[in-house]
Amino acid sequence: MSDVIQAGAQPIRPVRSKAAIERAEAMRRAAIRRRAWQRLLPWIVIVGAFVLWEVVVRAFDIEQFVLPSPSATFASMWQWRGPLFENAMQTLMTSILGFLLAVVGGLVLGCAIGGSTLVYAALYPMLIGFNAIPKVAVVPILVIWFGIGTVPAVITAFLLSFFPIVVNVATGIATVEPELRDVMRALGAGSLDIIIKIGLPRAMPYFFASLKIAISVAFVGSILAETIAANSGIGHLMVVASSRFDVPLVFAALLVTSGLGVAMYLVAAFIEKRMTGWTVRTEPGTAAATASPG
Amino acid sequence: MPSSKPFVDIHDVSLQYGGADGTLALSELSMKVQQGEFIAVVGPSGCGKSTLMKLLSGLWPASDGTVIVDGTEVTGPVSIAGMAFQNPTLLPWRTILRNVLLPLEVVRPHRSRLRRERATYETRAKQLLALVGLAGFENRAPWQLSGGMQQRVSLCRALIHEPRLLMLDEPFGALDIFTREELWAVLQDVWLARRPTVLLVTHDLREAVYLADRVFVMSSRPGRMVHIQPIELPRPRTLETTYQPAFTSLVHGLRDRISDVRNVTQPEHAHV
Predict the structure, then answer these.
(1) Which of B216, B222, B218, B219 is nearest to B16 (CA)?
(2) pLDDT digits (tens, 9 = 90+) for B134-155
(3) Is the pLDDT of residue A255 over 70?
(4) Residue B32 pairs with which residues in a beta bridge?
(5) pLDDT at A288
(6) pTM score
(7) Is the ipTM of this complex over 0.85?
(8) β-pairing, B64-69 with B165-169?
């Protein structure tokens, strides 16, 4: 009864009832829980996959040279940590070298193609044709030209990662608003001014998005070349290991490769976030809120 | 206000896009604009109003005839002009202040001085932002501003290098009616304070009558000037002005002119 009287005494804005406060608190806690799950889930999935793999191998008694168990794989990884590390560093070096070349070349060619319709018309068809060539087929040619070793790996990494960068930079520059271009040209800006002041900054989100792809495929390129013709590198190590039927070592190398790929992706993603913060429409500090699913 | 030498003198200009069989956008168009005058250009859609701006700014050459701005014939981009469009096209990675400063990084006498005299130029930009009611917004990002505010910034960007000719291509076309009317007053204030020669292209006849000294009516494509309507309402004009009989009859008169040109050149369309 007294509840009714109280509610009547404050007709416009009733005090938040205890139940409402509890509901809000419960929602807040649910949001925190959801965020905690978001951070944990990837690790749970990865660990779960390894556990499942181990269980399957043991349950069906699968031979080591068909599918080694994770425990055997990790044991092999520890046993061969020295060679694995050395060869991984070689692969890392060649793929980063090829990637850097691709960044420089991709930026320059991307600017040229995006900035000039003539250059675009001239080069684009050839670029697409070139990109369609399977790079596996190119490696033997590179070996004929440069011999077995580091150079073919660097070039293959470059060839694979070059294209996504060119396309993305060119797209960013070519899609500058025509009105903005008119404003700039009417002020006496040359095409170089427009590219530097507007085209390049505008292309940066595209560019950094392409870096994440490019760094991964550069890695693939290096390993590809190493499996065909090299004396070192993680690809070479895998070929040697599999020829000795040391399948656990092959799997260990695969895991190392995967780990390195993730690490490089994260580096590229981190740089992207730092450089193109303006694309995310939130104040610094509240960015985490955008990560929650709708 | 006929005087000795017009600031803008377009004489018998034709402009054809593409080759010999391309679209004829303007045909034997002539117009004279005095220094410091506020001109509005209205016409049916597709009449070549925007082409007129490209012509004046030197972005497109005339196929025939002469375009003279400030005593010299226009043959290439004229940096004495400032431009603003329906789309504010602010650069999202720059703050409001740096967006306004953009033209100074390009226009000839300023681009070399900008680094040395940064503070002076920034003060100038801040004054301009204050003039359009955006004091205190210098360090915001463009997305933090409403459409009307972004258009004010775009106006500041068009004015920062103190152009003697300001060309506005439907600058308020995408805004709601209340914001639009607000910005008419802002633009009038800016014009009264700085007195640039303004060429405003618009679809909105009330906007044209509110702002302009003279309204030019263009024919359908190929565009020509078919009527010049002097607007002799006292300034500064206010929203109140727009409800006065003199204002309304001017708008009605212009509306009839537009209906006429649409009717004459597009007989297949019913009279609106």
Answers:
(1) B222
(2) 888 989 989 889 888 998 899 8
(3) yes
(4) B9
(5) 35
(6) 0.74
(7) no
(8) unpaired
| Cα B6 off chain centre by | 18
Q: Which of residues 130-169 of B touch A (CB under 8 A)?
A: 141, 143, 157-158, 161
Question: Is the CB of B54 less than 8 angstroms away from the CB of A182?
Answer: yes
pLDDT recorded at residue A89: 93
pLDDT in tens, A25-54: 889 999 999 899 888 999 999 999 999 999
Both tokens of A246, joined, read 């040391």
Chain A CA closest to residue B102: A197
| Six-digit token string for A139 | 């490696």
For residue A196, what pLDDT band results from cuts at 50, 70 and 90?
confident
Q: Are B214 and B17 in contact (CB under 8 A)?
A: no
Beta strands B197-201 and B165-169: pairing type? Answer: parallel
Q: Chain B residues with CB inside 8 Å of A207's CB?
A: none
**Type of residue at A212:** K
Determine the pLDDT at residue B82. 85
Give the pLDDT of residue B37: 92
Q: What is the CA radius of gyration of chain B?
A: 19
Candidates B53, B78, B83, B154, partner chain A, best to mutate (most A CBs within 10 A): B83
Q: What burial class does residue B188 get, using C-beta atoms within 10 Å of its C-beta: 0-12 exposed, 13-18 middle, 19+ buried?
A: middle
Q: Is the pLDDT of residue A21 over 60?
A: yes
B83/A contact by beta carbon, under 8 A: yes
Q: Where is B166: in which H helix or E strand?
A: strand B165-169
**Which domains are delineated in chain B?**
1-34+48-76+240-272 (no CATH), 79-200 (3.40.50.300)
| Residue A102 pLDDT greater than 90, yes or no | yes
B253 vs B237: CA distance, rounded Å: 19
Contacts of A182 in chain B (CB under 8 A): 54, 57, 59, 83, 85
Residue of A nearest to B92 (CA): A278
What sign has the CA pseudo-torsion B255, B258, B259, B260? positive
Closest CA–CA distance from residue B86 to any residue of chain A (Å): 9
